Amino acid sequence: MKITHMTSVHPRFDTRIFLKECSALQKEHEVSLIVADGKGNEIKNNIAIIDVGTLPGRLNRIFKTTHKVYKKALELDSDLYHFHDPELIPIGLKLKKKGKIVIFDSHEDVPKQIFGKPYLNKFTKIIISTLFALYEKYSTPKFDGIITATPSIRDKFLKLNNNTIDINNYPILGELHNKHAKWHEKEKQVCYVGGISDIRGIAEMVESLSHLTTNTTMKLAGNFSDNNLENKIKSMKNWHKIDALGFLNRLETKEFLSKSIAGIVLYHPLPNHIDAQPNKIFEYMSAGIPVIASNFPLWKEIVVKNHCGLCVDPLNPKEIANAIDYLSNNPDIAEEMGRNGLLAVNEKYNWDIEQNKLNNFYQHIGR
To answer: What is the pTM of this model?
Structure first.
C-alpha cells in the first residue's frame, strides 16, 4: 500500500511520526512524509521526506502551508493519507471527497489544550475551545479512522468514530537505556528532557533548588518555548545552579540520562495535562532511572503502581526538592525504582506492542 503521512507543524524527525509510525510502516508499505520545515527533500530509512517549505507566521502556516501540503498530497496519489495536525483537518476532508482513505492522528485533546495557551485570555479560550469541539464533532466522523496518543483521547473520539484506536507514545525498546551504566558512577544530578515552558514547570524546578539539602545539581535538555520566558527564567536567583544544554539528539539524550539519578516531568495541572501520558515518563523509565512526576491520578497510577518514582505537587518547589533529596540520599532505593521502571517498559509500555496495533489497524482500514 502507498501511504503518505502529513504534518505542517512537526519537525521531520519527530519521534512519534517519523521514528515510530513511519519507520514501523515502511517495513511493509511505500511510505512518504510531507513536512513544512524548509530543509528540502530527502530519503531517510526508506521513507521519502517531501518538504513544501516554510512560511513566517502562524496564519501563513494555517492557510498557505496547509494548501501546499494538500497539493503535494494530491500529486503523490497515495492509497492512504495519515495526518497529524488539527489544522490539516480541512485537508483531510478534501482528500476524503477525492475518494481517499484518510486517518487523523490526534496527539492532543485540542479543546482542552487551548486552555493552556498563555497568549489567550479566559473568554477567548472558552470560545475557541467550544468552537473547535464542535468542529471535531462535525469532521472526525467523516474519516476512515482516528488514531490517538492516549486512552482518554481515544475514549472521546470513540463516541464520534467507531474506527478509533490509541497508539501510545511508548518508548522504543533499548533506545535510551545504557546497559553499561553503573549506578555508583552516576553524577549527583537530576534531569529534565523536553520543551521548556511555564506550564511544564520550569519556574518551580528552578525554585526547588533553594530548598535542597543535598548538593544535587539539575540539568536541562531542550529549548525554551519563547524568548520572553527564557529571559524571565534566566533572571531567577537560582539559574546559575542550572546546567542548560539545549536540544540533544537521541544518542546524546541516552548518554545524558545514563548519568542522572532521576528524570523530572512536572507539568502544571491543566485540563490537557491531567489525562495525558507524557512521553517523558516512559522515556525516563526506559532509561532505567526513577521519575519525579506531577501527582495527577493517571500519572500516579503509572509511577506509584510500578514503584518507579515519586509523585509530587508540581506547584510546590519544597515538595519537589524533598523528592530530589530523597532519591539523592537513598541511592539503593533510587536504583531499584529505576530497575522497576525499566521492567515495566520491557513488559508493557513499549513501542513493539504499539506498532503491532498500528499495523493491524492499517490492515483493517485498508481493506
So the answer is: 0.88
